[in-house]
Amino acid sequence: MNKLELMKMANEVRKGAITAVHSAKSGHPGGSLSAADIYTYLYFEEMNVDPKDPKKADRDRFVLSKGHTAPGYYATLANKGFFPVEDLTTLRKVGSYLQGHPDMKHIPGVDMSSGSLGQGISAAVGMAISAKLNDASYRVYTLLGDGEIQEGQVWEAAMLAGHRKLDNLVVIVDNNNLQIDGTVEEVNSPYPIDKKFEAFNFHVINIDGHDFDAIDAAFKEAREIKGQPTAIIAKTVKGKGVSFMENQVSWHGSAPNDEQYAVAMADLEKVGEALCQK
């Protein structure tokens, strides 16, 4: 995909995430929207995955460590073709396979069940080690929240990744600076995030997580790094794309009502229309 196509797809992912959360009347829109551009780049440009063969042995692996932002993840998988986009409206409903957090047993394309914060990166490190031991070609990607990296298990995993020189691993931190209780500085500051990962022997890249040129350059750079895992620290806006959600901590885990949903979708429709003029 070219940059414009990626921007259009990311907007569709945002629409899907908002639609799913509105339908469920619960869920996590803020972090789904901040990560939408990263999700889009991974699944439509970076990763070797095939919706027709979701378990193929040489596929790249993705672990959503911040599992609560599943609405954005599901919208990405649906738009990629792993399951019907229409199913997004069944999020969190009784009998639906689209649970509030990713479930590898029931959702096509999901490589790891996640949701307990801090644990996903450990699973990703294990997958990357497995690839090394088996001389396999696949790469492993994991997306963490900046509030999530307050968990000690994240740094245990980072220590092992650096020690094992896992250059087939890319850790992405969605640095939108907000978590459920406020700003990450107020709750338990993880800053400077880049220096911490460097201390664990990571190659670190700081980017604007909404700039597809920067995202593209970062993932290409990560592929060239040998002997070190890569950490991409993506500066993002929580609630990106929806006027009343942007940078508002209250939208970490709240669902829009009917009126708010209409405004949100109108905002995203405007973005889509503007992209079509380019």
Automatic annotation (TrEMBL):
Co-factor requirement: thiamine diphosphate
Record carries keyword Metal-binding: yes
InterPro entries: THDP-binding (IPR029061), Transketolase_CS (IPR049557), Transketolase_N (IPR005474)
Family: Belongs to the transketolase family.
Source organism of this protein record: Dorea hominis
Ranges for domain Transketolase N-terminal: 8-261
Record keywords, A-Z: Metal-binding, Thiamine pyrophosphate, Transferase
Gene3D superfamilies on file: 3.40.50.970
Name by which UniProt lists this protein: Transketolase
One Pfam family per UniProt: Transketolase_N
KW Cell wall biogenesis/degradation (keyword) present: no
